[in-house]
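OP here, attaching both records as promised.
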Amino acid sequence: MGNSNIFSCERKVIDLNSKDMFSIESFTTLQKLSGDKIDPKTQTIHDMLWISMDAISRNRSLYESVGYWEAMNSPYIQELIHRGTWFGELDHPDANCSRERFLKVDKDNISHRLIRYKRIGNDIRGDIQFVKPKGDIPWDWVQKGSNISLSTRILTPNYEEREDAQGNPYIHKFGKMRLVTFDCISSAPGFKPASIVENVDSYDASQENWKGLDIHWTAGRKKEEFMNLLKSQESLPIMEDIYGFSMKDVKDISYSEEGLISLLIKDNGEYSQSIKIPTNVYKVNQILCAGR
């Protein structure tokens, strides 16, 4: 591999000094919120809590697991999942809607598809995929830091008022139930963990960068990846050629929020030089791969 290949061909295609795009392309709020739970390519959220059965919700309701699980596994719901047509809406229908509207999923308000689910203890967890016509709205909320939630929509004709261990009343729902769907809601869910970020108490969306980036968070990740490039016996010689330095002369490495790695080079204690390299790791990796 020679320098001519890097400078005459690939460098014209990929500008190493271009605006830092790595954080926007790879480290958005999505990853900070949920790690590998979110697949941006398919706009899918994996392993999201849908509901906790046999637990009193913040709405003071309890769904008995026997009846609820039977409703989840009804032939109707199973066929919808098998056909890939179990959809949910953006927010619940109006509280004063008719019974017919409650039991119907409005195709003009569909925002997501319920793909698959599993039961873990009394929790039901599953995957949802945002779809049109309304899926772009909650997906945009997620990208900007909103902690959206799922909320069950189910007809429960059998219920009675009971008291919990502390003597507080709640509605106990049991027996045959008719499950409609799980809607994507922007309001607070009945079960606090039924959100993308399950630990609601430790998450504050007002602290998010609403441009979809958290500089302080991405900074450490980008610095770490770039340092790995500088430590790589295979990549380092290419980096030294491109930027005209020798790692043995580097006395200090610093990182700035502007997205620059600064290499301080000293010569005999009298001469010093600072080389600033954009931490556009995505583009740098393209150059390194093209030069091999």
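Record two, same layout:
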Amino acid sequence: MPLLFRLRALRAPLGLAAAGLISVLVPQPLRAHGAGGGEALAPGTFQIAPVLTLEGHAGLENNLEGHPRHYALDGLIGIVLEWGLPNSGSLAIEAMVGPALVWGEAEHFYGRVHRDAGHDEGGGHADDHRQELDRDHGHASEEAHGDGHEADGSEHRPDSSEDDHAHHGESHGGHHDDPDHSHDHSHSDGAPYRRTDIKGWLQVRYAPDPRWSFFAEWKPYYVTRSQQDDIRGLKNEIGVGMTWALGDGDLNFALGDGLETIADGVFLSLENRTGWESDGTYLGNYTDPWLGLGFNIDRLNVTLSGGPRFYAPGRYAGLPNRTDWGGELALELPVSPRTVLFAHWTPIYSSQDGEGWGQGWQHHVGTGVTIRF
């Protein structure tokens, strides 16, 4: 997924930002992933540095019909501005932008529901939404098939754009000879290469002291072409959160620390995220109050966290609020003072079935490298 924000349990931490979606603790002034390395800034000092992050990641939605997948290779370049504050605190602003090479579906906000026309449980809102999407892409209004799938829409305007043809050829229930389309449902079991999108990330992070951290971020994502359930336009995600370190963060099992010192790496995090689709549809929001543990094994930083996810879908979905459960395993390995390798795995279990949504697991996995110049 995306570039995910990480707080690290290190004496002189490297953070991780991301796709994303990951909150980890740092008991020293926080740094975004790529702000990388070195001691905390002295009060009143300032530094600025370019940052490059390369990441490959995948989303596996096993709880949905057809088990839709998204795979992407991201190349983001940006800049970090950081100020040292009293009490070993810091204030940082980081911005990144770059291409995302997409296979299968595009990266999207958690919980997006693929609703077919004719299955509206929200008083006609889903049908209105589908008709609005059709108008946006030059479609005439189409009647639904008796099986609940959207009509194929065989009429094309003579001057239809490439995007219009792509959307027709890959809409729900579309039957065609597109070699990139593995079967007639929009949730293809395959994941052919689709296009190159553009993604960005802007974050403000404030750590008043080594135990507390607060952040606010904006993750825009521009879909460059309409294909299957992806609609050309700008997706948006806004996140806010905080982390409280219960210990001093100095936990390194390679240096002889034992289980009796495990409390030094424990932290609590609270995070809320809200998402909008590229056509402006409000997708909903979720809140994660998670408990975590961060520790080192020599230079390798390991962070485990998990807990409930309180999810409120947007009205378009016609689904009730629910409580899901999830966790995350995050790894970071500094290979030089300015280069960090990272990997993460985030499994989320959805507790309820619904139209367009199923009970079961979703996974997001990724790995990459961040270089600070």
